[in-house]
Amino acid sequence: MEKRKVYMDKIEANLKQYNAKLSQMKAEISLAKADLKLEYLNQMDNLERKRDEFMVKYEQLKENSEHSWEDVKEGTEKSWNELKDSIEKAISRFK
């Protein structure tokens, strides 16, 4: 049980950081030149879609029993890594 709680707490902390980065990026979009805004908005839509997909997997992880959560954890980690990579790429493009 402790291992699962530590893992879930880590995911929650990562999600808070991710959402803060998304908010920061949204604020920066408003300062972008008109020709770049559309590209940035498309990137934000993509990031929000990936976050929503991750949240589905995360909710499945939370709902699984102690015995079966390890099975769902692998898919959740894959989804998280995709999300993390996407945000890092978007941040580098915003700079």
Could you characterize what this model shows?
- By secondary structure, this protein is mainly alpha-helical.
- The protein has one domain.
- The chain contains three helices and no strands.
- Helix 1 runs parallel beside helix 3.
- It starts with a helix and ends with a helix.
- The model has no long low-confidence stretch (mean pLDDT 82).
Strand content: under 5%
- What is the element string, with H for helices and E for strands? HHH
Mean pLDDT rating: 82
What is the rounded distance between the termini? 41 Å
Structural class: mainly alpha
Helix content: over 70%
- Using the CA coordinates, give the radius of gyration: 15 Å
Largest sheet composition: none
List how many beta strands DSSP finds: 0
Number of helical segments with 4 or more residues: 3
Total individual domains: 1
**Unreliable spans:** none
What best-fitting shape do the alpha-carbon axes yield?
elongated
Characteristic terms for this protein:
95 residues; single chain; mainly alpha
Which SSEs are present, and which pair or pack?
Layout (H helix, E strand, L loop, with lengths): L1 H28 L4 H30 L5 H26 L1
Brief overview, please?
By secondary structure, the chain is an all-alpha fold. Helix content is 88%, strand content 0%. The chain has one domain.
